[in-house]
Amino acid sequence: MVRARVVATLATAVTLAACSGASGSSAPAPSAPTSTTAAATTSTTVAGSPGCDAPPPSGRRSVTIDSRGRQRTFRLAVPPASAGTGPRPLILDFHGRGSNAVEQAVYSDLEARGTARGDVVLSPNGVSLRGTRIWNIVNRSAGLDDVGFTADLLAWAESHLCIDTRQVDATGISNGAGMSAFLPCQLDGRFAAIAPVAGVNLVDVCPTGTPVSVLAFHGEQDPVVPYHGANAVAGTSIGAKPVPDAVAAWARHDSCDAQPTETRVSTHVTRTTYHGCRAGTDVVLDTVADGGHTWPGSKISLPRLGATTHEIDATGLILDFFAAHPLRTG
């Protein structure tokens, strides 16, 4: 029943509800896109948050906090006690427009798979405007300050949980992908890596700031956030650059080499990797040739939004990428 409800809701959600996929036969997922440079130059020193002094919780629950005069909610998923103690990586997983935290937790499967690996996963809920939950990736207006909410969310997590502050990462789909790409420039130095799925091109990249590792996924046949760009996405006022241009902008932000390398990792998936980036970061794009506005490898199919590839497993690749790219400490 839960899966059926989620499929039905996601399939009819307004515009930005999912991301990247492709048809074709299943194949083993390629290894995580990392570089020897990152492994050699990035420190893995753990930096525990104030919450490390509190008793460690476990399990999953809904949490409500006050943020900028609003009651905001999110799902909290903490590794089991059997996973041991000590500072944990923190992943924020943002749903698409018209969706919610529960649906995103099921769709990406990050909540289950992340905690199994020892990560804390927070799945926030956007604010419903005119009946549709969204993330404000246009500005930081007082009316809906989702950047402020994220800052409050990080403060709550770091004071109530034992978080490794050098392994705070963000991902999401569509409007949520845009949110994950919006945050590093707005909260400089707080995020080690991001993994936007079907939405890396929804926001501009800041020209300066702390290096951030980026792993993006996008389908070339995405009907909602076009791979080749659009003046206005799905009837909104938000424009979208061509995906390769958006990823190249992140490469410039991280001072990577100008020319990337391209590798065919499966029948329909091409990986573009920028090398020589600052502080052991990497910038990577997985392009799915006939992919739709879907999450690669998801068990949930969304035919109205295009094909979902199973040639790669976005969730597994994201978890590996995040683990390999903490903030550099020296």
Description:
Helix content is 25%, strand content 23%. The chain is an alpha/beta fold and 330 residues long. The protein has a 10-stranded mixed β-sheet, sandwiched between helices. The protein has a two-stranded antiparallel sheet with strand order 5-6. A hairpin with a 2-residue loop joins strand 5 (127-129) and strand 6.
Task: List its salient traits.
single chain, 330 residues, alpha/beta, Rossmann fold, ten-stranded mixed beta sheet, 8 helices, globular
The name of the CATH architecture is 3-Layer(aba) Sandwich
- Number of extended strands: 12
The CATH superfamily turns out to be Alpha/Beta hydrolase fold, catalytic domain
Strand order of the largest sheet: 1-2-4-3-7-8-9-12-11-10
* Shape, per Cα inertia axes: globular
Q: Could you tell me the strand content as a percent range?
A: 15-25%
What value does the average pLDDT take?
86
Order of helices and strands: HHEEEHHEEEHEHEEHEEEH
Helix content: 10-25%
Main sheet overview: 10 strands, mixed
